[in-house]
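Below is one such protein, fold included:
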Amino acid sequence: METSPARPPYRLDPSGGCPHAVNARLLAGGAVAPVELPGGIAGMAVLGHEALKEFLQHPEVAKNARHFTDLREGRIPAGWPLLTFATVQGMTTADGEDHRRLRSLAGRAFTPRRVEELRPRIEELTSALLDDLARAAAAGDGVADLRRHFALPLPMGVVCELLGVDVEFRDRLHHLSNRVVATDSEPAEAIAANRELVAILAEIAAAKAAAPADDLTSALIAARDEGGDRLGDQELIGTLLLMIIAGHETTLNLITNAVRALCAHRDQLDLVRAGKASWADVAEETLRWDAPVSYFPFRYPVRDLTVGGTLIPAGTPVLAGYSAAGRDPGAHGPDADRFDVTRPARPDAVRHLSLGHGAHYCLGAPLARLEAGIALERLFTRFPDLELAAADADLAPHAGFVGNSVRTLPVRPTPGGSRGA
């Protein structure tokens, strides 16, 4: 296969920003783009839908950081902001049998039956948080931050209840996980956040080991695979870290982005209310159109690979460009940048890749979809005239280039009948 001519690397902004204009420019030059990661580290981003689908399931693409050439050869400093993504011991950095073992042990909590059993608790928590949102608005001249009062505490509450994490830890865990996934952290800050997060998780795990309870952390400590192996200490901490981060950050962004999209596209909200689309359709279109994760680290070719007409050298850290693939005109048509909750599914049934594809497909996808569907339906039922309290263009983007959302989402949660008054 012919390879595309080399093009200069695009320097990813560590402080983040809305990715869509950048994605469109990069995609115009090809499905795979060279990028410069923080610290001047050379990487690649796979942006096109078909190229990303191929790359995510390629048998010669690994997740284990031993394949990361710059790390192996000592060119990555201790405080590099993406180091945790590369080195945490868990499902996202394991390959082959190790990956299957870890996924099997953790996956017992995410069977369809176990997820469905969470529905009543999610509905109960959603109702309570809607009350909190209303109270926050009443105390704030009718305006409240939906992200802080609703979109964050819902998935954080659910995943912490699953893991058996006490309420006292939750705010700190969110703050620390937010710093761990940020790409603009100073080295000392990144090291300190990672150490404190690991220490808290170790404290939680030790308490569960001493006094097991009916929660996932206790189950992970007790679980053995078919060969009789338990999770190692570092694997347990890594699994807890990944579940807390992935278990709330992605759903937080999904709910935030969906509400923002519906408020900016009232015609699409009207289609849902008219029964022409479902809340599940809203969640799927949001995942495609404004993916909660923009560029996810890392995968490494174990040999030189040509993907989408571009050569990716072995050992290169590669980002999965989910936000770009979701708006790829080659896959989603010339109106790929239009938010359309009635958009038909693709013939190959892969509507989007925003929750991954292949062996590393998001283990918590059913739970994220359930939480988002309940949250959106209950929110717009309780507050049918909910509207943004700031111009969409004035909303500050999420810090960093991994997560994709806004830092706050100020809304007016009026109970109905007053929009435009």
The chain has 18 helices and eleven strands. The radius of gyration is 21 Å. The first strand starts at residue 10 and ends at 11. Residues 233-264 form the longest helix (32 residues).
